[in-house]
Amino acid sequence: xxxxxxxxxxxxxxxxxxxxxxxxxxxxxxxxxxxxxxxxxxxxxxxxxxxxxxxxxxxxxxxxxxxxxxxxxxxxxxxxxxxxxxxxxxxxxxxxxxxxxxxxxxxxxxxxxxxxxxxxxxxxxxxxxxxxxxxxxxxxxxxxxxxxxxxxxxxxxxxxxxxxxxxxxxxxxxxxxxxxxxxxxxxxxxxxxxxxxxxxxxxxxxxxxxxxxxxxxxxxxxxxxxxxxxxxxxxxxxxxxxxxxxxxxxxxxxxxxxxxxxxxxxxxxxxxxxxxxxxxxxxxxxxxxxxx
Amino acid sequence: xxxxxxxxxxxxxxxxxxxxxxxxxxxxxxxxxxxxxxxxxxxxxxxxxxxxxxxxxxxxxxxxxxxxxxxxxxxxxxxxxxxxxxxxxxxxxxxxxxxxxxxxxxxxxxxxxxxxxxxxxxxxxxxxxxxxxxxxxxxxxxxxxxxxxxxxxxxxxxxxxxxxxxxxxxxxxxxxxxxxxxxxxxxxxxxxxxxxxxxxxxxxxxxxxxxxxxxxxxxxxxxxxxxxxxxxxxxxxxxxxxxxxxxxxxxxxxxxxxxxxxxxxxxxxx
Lengths: 292, 270
Known about the structure:
The complex is a heterodimer.
Chain A: H1 2-6, H2 19-55, H3 60-63, H4 69-80, H5 85-121, H6 132-144, H7 147-158, H8 162-186, H9 191-198, H10 203-237, H11 245-253, H12 260-290
Helix pairs in contact in A: 4-12, 5-6, 5-8, 5-10, 5-12, 6-8, 7-8, 8-10, 9-10, 10-12, 11-12
Chain B: E1 2-11, E2 14-24, E3 29-33, H1 40-48, E4 55-60, E5 63-64, H2 70-79, E6 80-83, H3 95-100, H4 109-113, H5 119-131, H6 147-160, E7 165-169, H7 177-194, E8 197-201, H8 205-211, E9 214-219, E10 222-227, H9 234-241, H10 262-269
Parallel strand pairs in B: 3-8, 3-9, 6-7, 7-8
Antiparallel strand pairs in B: 1-2, 1-4, 4-5, 9-10
Helix pairs in contact in B: 5-6, 6-7
């Protein structure tokens, strides 16, 4: 009767006072949780694909074969006008230089502002520890607004041209670099700072001699990475009227066929420039971090 | 069994280890002494193949282990456990997982990623921890343990490998005297009970005298002394360390029961 009420004899329970059994028990439980999470992830991915597919205007799989249509049209037209390409490349070179100048100026300004924000936002380094949240939220805000939104507002205020683009990219860069700079400063060894403080050095002297030499390779490496990103960003900002090669690309593309040789020339220039700068900065970063 | 012949390691123009040769037969407990930069660590790292030799030959049971590559090299590393001065555990993982890492050479990356250890392996890991007296720490993170306990976890990881040779690179250099004694006693016990060969770099002479069957002295990359602890007199030690007559080993001795200055101690305690 008791058996019927309480069910069959339960299996042997793990004896949790025995360290070995309790550890095996704990491992099994962790493994089970991991498995459940994995299954949940797979199920969500599968369900999400269905939702996305249903909401798509066309069908993903049946539309896939059209992927190459537009590039093929562009390339075939450019091929028939290939004699123009060297001249066009030469013609657009000044716009490319403008784009790169925008990126370089914006990176420099953004890195300086980012460094100041980072030193204010790093908990164990800040001159005024109570103000770290203020610096952090400022950086968050700058980082949260996309460059293109800042640029559109600034173009509305200042009119078109490179200045709004520089400011827009610099503001976003300051926010992004402040975060990265502050993280690497947080991991810096504080022993040199303590040593300098023990000699009676001021806060600015402690930072200048104790922290900056330590974080310089990292900070430079982050700034170079940001420069690569900014070259692309400044090309895109041309689309909203900030000058540079993006503006030319927009003019060449927006009327459909007829100017596709210009599109190809601009893409070739942009592509080459980005590869060159990526390679250069990757080389420079490698040398900085590994010391040769 | 372990034979080292004319092993040299160059760092730039400087030889860290310079034509070192010796042979260890049976399961001995060998200590290597010498001042910092004498090449002790480099020699041990070459035996484990963490560092490549520039020339020479290290053979174990007739096989030149310096010529091994890829999976064969890793299999050798699996049989030749290493213990480090700074413990070199994975700090954020629990103690039992760190011990299980001793089996990595026999496991696939896939099984490692999903932490799939069999119950038998886990039981063995915990038995080893029990043997070293730290089983209560098994579910704790390695970084939460004291230095002496972490070093015992490292020894447990080495034992999990079921190695033929245990290399210990300054195992007690960052421990206080009491923990140092616990760790050295543990190493000696492993040698006595399991008959495993232990080679330890040591930085204190009294430790070498007390625990080792044989002491090898190195100076500027060369083997300058090879004998029993009894032969390691103060004069010989001065030669190994390149010190003059002012060298007094008891001045920096870390032994608790060393030749203590009882008179001074009593005035301090009074």
